[in-house]
Amino acid sequence: MRFFLIFITILLSNTLLQAVENKPYHHNEDGTFRNPEGSPVRSRDVKFSYSTFSKEKKKLDLTYPSEHVVPQEKVLSDLNNLKDDVAYAKGVWKFEAGTMPTAEVVALKESVNFINSIGKENIFKHED
Hints:
mainly alpha, extended
């Protein structure tokens, strides 16, 4: 029994050391964080002001390139086209918490469309 306890203690201490070693630079061994060298030093005398934060945030350019955003009309039309394909759980199960795998379903659909556009025969020929 004593050997077992010593073994578990050594195993846990090595695991914790490895966990600390694998953490990013800003994680300290004691669970606190540090800033990289050259970072500004935060003064404890500074008082946080939400109104000042909001004013400064409005100065930032938060626009996204148009190719990074799906147009609202396309999203709404796709949702409208797919609304009959949605099935909800019956009874109390419809209240079950969780996120539906919508992105995964859309990705699967697009993957199948991509494979069909290339053609299964062409894929098999390429693999041979």
